[in-house]
Amino acid sequence: MTDAATQIKETVTTNDVVLFMKGTKSMPQCGFSSRVAGVLNYMEVEFADVNVLADDAMRQGIKDYSDWPTVPQLYVKGEFVGGCDIITEMMLSGELDTLLAENNVSYDKDAADKIREANG
Amino acid sequence: MPMQAQDIENLIRETFPSAKITITDLAGDGNHYSAEVIDESFKGKNRVQQQRAVYASLKGKMDGAHGDLHALALTTKAPD
């Protein structure tokens, strides 16, 4: 494994929820990253953020690691869940709630319902 | 370099000849598209597997700064 792959594996196995993104959760630098970080923040999900713009090896490494060409990328308990489109769909359908609950990740159900109401 | 919607559809169709493919130019700049792909082969696959296959059909066009295509919002599903 490359250094980046080793680092990614360690990050996704030592944190329950990890978002690889452009920018940080408090200051996203891309609309797609911002949308996913915004959903997680609003649902009060505790997650680690990795800014791929801060590290060229990571920027390419995360794409190789997941065989997925775009950022953001969300991982739950070490498993790649999806990018912006998939997370948006799963958020609105309630599948994201199920996934978090199944993995014992705490989140604010009322906040999730509010997002769905606003986008219903 | 921007891509035409037809080019994107053609690439996807090489891999998914009988799929229903809808490409929309979201910003009118040839750089931000959405694509909906509905194909029989998606049955039994999760979204990550479905979309990985579509990305693969685009053969590197999405490769970041060096790619022709900056943003493609993907929706994939099997026919009802």
Chain-wise SSE layout:
The complex is a heterodimer of chains A (120) and B (80).
Chain A lengths: L2 H12 L2 E5 L9 H12 L5 E4 L4 H11 L6 E4 L2 E4 L1 H10 L1 H8 L6 H10 L2
Parallel strand pairs in A: 1-2
Antiparallel strand pairs in A: 1-3, 3-4
Helix pairs in contact in A: 1-3, 2-4
Chain B lengths: L4 H11 L4 E6 L6 E7 L8 H11 L13 E7 L3
Parallel strand pairs in B: 2-3
Antiparallel strand pairs in B: 1-2
Please provide a written account of the structure.
The complex is a heterodimer of chains A (120) and B (80). Chain A has one domain (3-118): Glutaredoxin. The mean pLDDT of chain A is 95. In chain A, helix 1 (3-14) crosses helix 3 (56-66). Chain A has a four-stranded mixed beta sheet, with helices on both faces. The N and C termini of chain A lie far apart (44 Å). Chain A has 120 residues and is of the alpha+beta class. Helices cover 52% and strands 14% of the residues of chain A. Chain B is of the alpha+beta class and 80 residues long. Chain B has a single domain, classed as GMP Synthetase, Chain A, domain 3. Chain B contains two helices and three strands. In chain B, strand 2, helix 2 and strand 3 form a beta-alpha-beta unit. The chains are: A alpha+beta (120), B alpha+beta (80). The A-B interface holds A 32, 59-60, 63, 67-70, 80-86, 89 and B 47-48, 51-52, 55, 62-64, 67, 71, 73-75.
Question: Helix coverage percent of residues of chain A?
Answer: 40-55%
Spatial sequence of strands, sheet with the most strands of chain A: 2-1-3-4
Major beta sheet summary of chain A: 4 strands, mixed
Indicate the overall shape of chain B.
globular
Order of helices and strands of chain B: HEEHE
- Which oligomeric form is depicted? heterodimer
**In the residues of chain A, how many domains can be counted?**
1
Which CATH class of chain A applies here?
Answer: Alpha Beta
Cα-based radius of gyration of chain A, to the nearest Å: 14 Å
| Residue-averaged pLDDT of chain B | 88
Assign the CATH architecture of chain B.
2-Layer Sandwich
Q: What sequence of helices (H) and strands (E) makes up the elements of chain A? A: HEHEHEEHHH
Task: Please indicate the count of domains of chain B.
Answer: 1
